[in-house]
Amino acid sequence: MGELLALAPVIPVLTLEGAADGVPVARALVAGGLPVLEVTLRTPGALEAVRAIADAVPGAVVGVGTVVTPAQFDAARRAGARFAVSPGQTPALLSAAADAGMPYLPGMASVSEAMALAERGYRALKFFPAESCGGAGFLRALLAPLPELRFCPTGGIDSAKAEEYLALPNVPCVGGSWPVPAAAVRAGNWDRIEALAHAAASLRANPAA
Length: 209
Ligand SMILES: O=C(O)C(=O)C[C@H](O)[C@H](O)COP(=O)(O)O
Hints:
four-stranded parallel sheet, 10 helices, about 15% strand, TIM Barrel, alpha/beta, binds 2-keto 3 deoxy 6 phospho gluconate
């Protein structure tokens, strides 16, 4: 999973009302410089959108988010997802991720959760919900005791906050929905999404991350 986090400074989080929006949104994001896309499994057409993006947008590395049940790994893999993300993690999800052989970004929000995941071999973790659980200061505090871990903070992040996180040597990228505003998707304003992606892609992670 670490290699995927190094591909771009921002992973846009897509919650798509209609599966048909997936391809144009993905094309706009990839054109703007954000190739790694997380489609949340919160809407009925999400897996269909993943399949369409995987088939029709060659530059995209599409994965699924909001993975909360073990069965979702297999469904995601069959739809063409290249990685999976969860807001937290459970023993059943960790076993299903290992069985699926799919790169997995498990969520955590405490030091003990980070340590438990490190014990299981995870080096790349999602810090969620980042802004509600201590923000950039929390991750800065983990640098000394857990220097080998890398975090993708997500939850309440906008472009200005993204810069603050990306300055940290343990944050290769951040996740967020801000490059994909629901109003722009509804309006079919793909140019707006491409412009937001372009601005997000121009952010720079700390070279040590
Ligand atoms: O669905 C998941 O797996 C989640 O963990 C939640 C998402 O990461 C947030 O919905 C990000 O959204 P914003 O806070 O709007 O940037």
